[in-house]
TrEMBL record:
The lineage of its organism: Eukaryota, Viridiplantae, Streptophyta, Embryophyta, Tracheophyta. The gene is LOC111301690. Residues 341-437 form the GH3 middle domain. Keywords: Ligase. The keyword Ligase applies. It comes from Durio zibethinus (Durian). This is Indole-3-acetic acid-amido synthetase GH3.17-like isoform X1. It comes from the Eukaryota.
Length: 594
């Protein structure tokens, strides 16, 4: 970004955050002015556009509440049953965190907001890292999924696929190492191989390394561990492997792949080292940072990513979801545990439902489920149902809230599903940090274990592995009720820091991990364990590559690799079969927790 563009972007950010209250009022007035006459809002507003009437009469809703209207639009009814502006397409969520994929209407206006957001985000990044657009290329791993056409003829695609398919993206694709053909390859293995190949060929030009989520960056490193010798062979002889059969990938590779034995040898020398600590920095020595969402469910990958990054900053730049663009991290060099997002008052109308339970900031090790994550429902006992939502500028520091969004695209007082804590203000606009999620994911007998409970327990248990030089690279869970009493099962994938494949684990350590997890779970769980209403917790260690196979399964079912988040609780029987088929060890807690 040129200096003039950077200065204009930062000026806009200051104006937005200074005038947040007026801008929010204007956003809501514009939404009601357009959409008050829709079938949905007429039920509550009778055609009126008064904002006070909106807050008094329009209910707080979940996706299931508005799904019938979205389904009608997808099936061919006019979009004005929900919004005035024509729907141009649907964003399709992955469905890995909440079950079934969701269709979120999008409009031309939202696309324009996306362009403004890009300007603001790039201004912040330029402020901290300089103008990288003219310094080199970005090795951003990008993947797409086939677009689905609804009965109405409107297309449905993941947010990332939609972004990559825009004509504007093709214009800026020259900023990236990945040829456009490799991004649109439908075979993720061929796409990954060719994108890594391009990144290695241009390794001396790379100024950033990244992907949408930290898990995808790690997936690429694991892929590189398996294929670096073949990639070096391709570079050495100047010819792509025969198994790359996608014509777009082969043609794109042929344009950049030349006989270069010196480059191949230099990459071989790096990759053949016993330890891959700092491998990203070694392979791409000019990289300034690793760009990937590393908060929320992605924070479980932070330690491993730091290991491979060799000191490169991990930058979690923004907070957005299929429903709305929400905020930007104005301090991209902050630690994952300290990341706060400054909300953008021009992107949507934001409200915040105060949470009844006390809000406590969680540390980096505890923060495995903060960030860009979502839940199906939040237990009513954590909400203060007697308290009305508050506006963006009226939130209080240290208080927890559940986020509600109202957009011009037909979402009104919509529960996004994230719990946020106000960490501070930038000018007159609040900054938010994500805190533990309270949705119940495991339940046996009367015990209800939340993602927050599970996150804390896993964090404390995996600390026992650190002195052994072992990473927990992925985990998920389920409640096994096939026997009486039922018990909780955790699937853990482990990896040595020296790169060695963990074929066997010390049973004593794993039993200690089981016990540590039980000690860390809530009082109700411990009570039912003592009464033998719940059996001993079990950890099943799986082969390396198991969570890659799990990702492949979800991708085959329609999830986008760019947006995939491993589920903390697995309900799919097919997914459980994949996990169980790769178990190499089973361990149980030997004693009832105190």
């Amino acid at each position: 970004m040129a200096r003039s563009g950077y200065e204009a972007g930062m000026k806009m950010m200051e104006e937005l955050t200074t005038n947040a209250e007026q801008i929010q009022e204007q956003v809501l007035e514009e939404i009601l002015g357009r959409n008050a006459g829709t079938e949905y809002l007429r039920r509550f507003l009778r055609g009126e556009t008064d904002t006070k009437l909106f807050k008094a009469n329009v209910p707080i809703v979940t996706y299931e509440d508005i799904k019938p209207y979205i389904d009608r639009i997808a099936n061919g009814e006019p979009s004005d049953i929900l919004l005035d502006e024509p729907v141009i397409q649907f964003y399709r969520s992955s469905g890995t965190s909440g079950g079934q994929p969701k269709l979120i209407p999008t409009t031309a206006e939202l696309a324009n907001k996306g362009a403004i957001f890009d300007t603001l985000l790039q201004s912040v990044m330029t402020k901290h890292f300089g103008d990288l657009d003219h310094a080199g290329k970005r090795m951003e791993l990008m993947f797409t999924k086939p677009v689905i056409e609804t009965p109405s003829g409107l297309q449905a695609a993941s947010v990332t696929t939609s972004i990559f398919k825009k004509s504007g993206f093709r214009t800026i694709s020259k900023l990236y190492t990945s040829p456009i053909e490799t991004i649109f390859c439908s075979d993720t293995k061929q796409s990954m191989y060719c994108q890594l190949l391009a990144g290695l060929i241009r390794r001396d030009e790379v100024v950033t390394v990244g992907s949408t989520f930290a898990s995808t960056v790690l997936r690429s490193i694991k892929f590189l561990e398996d294929y670096w010798q073949e990639l070096c062979s391709n570079i050495k002889i100047g010819q792509i492997s025969d198994w790359i059969i996608d014509s777009g990938c082969r043609n794109a590779a042929s344009l950049i792949l030349k006989h270069n034995p010196d480059l191949a040898y230099s990459i071989e020398n790096i990759c053949s080292c016993k330890s891959w600590e700092g491998i990203i920095r070694k392979l791409w020595p000019k990289a300034k940072y690793i760009s990937a969402i590393n908060t929320g469910v992605m924070s479980q990958y932070t330690a491993e990513l730091e290991f491979y990054g060799g000191g490169l900053p991990l930058v979690s730049g923004f907070y957005a979801c299929s429903e709305a663009i929400c905020g930007i991290n104005l301090e991209p060099l902050s630690k994952s545990s300290d990341v706060s997002y400054t909300f953008l008052p021009n992107m949507a109308y934001f409200e915040f439902l105060p949470m009844k339970k006390d809000c406590v900031t969680i540390s980096q090790d505890q923060a495995q489920f903060d960030g860009l994550s979502r839940h199906e429902s939040i237990e009513k006992k954590t909400n203060n149902e007697d308290t009305e939502p508050v506006d963006l500028v009226n939130v209080k520091p240290g208080q927890c809230y559940e986020l509600l969004v109202t957009t011009s695209a037909g979402l009104y007082r919509y529960r996004v599903g994230d719990i946020l804590m106000v960490s501070g203000f930038h000018n007159n606009t609040p900054q938010f940090r994500f805190v533990e999620r309270q949705n119940v994911i495991l339940s046996i007998h009367a015990d209800k274990t939340s993602e927050a409970d599970l996150s804390k327990a896993v964090t404390e248990a995996k600390a026992l592995l650190d002195p052994l030089g072992i990473f927990l690279t992925g985990y998920t869970s389920y409640g096994d009720t096939s026997s009486i009493p039922g018990h909780y099962v955790l699937f853990w994938e482990l990896k040595g820091k020296e790169g060695n494949n963990i074929k066997e684990v010390d049973p004593k350590i794993m039993v200690e991990c089981c016990s540590k997890m039980e000690e860390s779970l809530n009082y109700t769980y411990k009570m039912y364990r003592k009464e033998n209403e719940i059996a001993a917790l079990e950890i099943r260690v799986v082969k390396q590559g198991t969570f890659d196979a799990l990702m492949d399964y979800y991708v085959s079912k329609g999830a986008s690799l760019s947006q995939f988040k491993a589920p903390s609780c697995t309900k799919s029987m097919e997914a459980l079969k994949i996990l169980d088929s790769r178990v190499i060890g089973k361990f149980f807690s030997p004693k009832t927790p105190i």
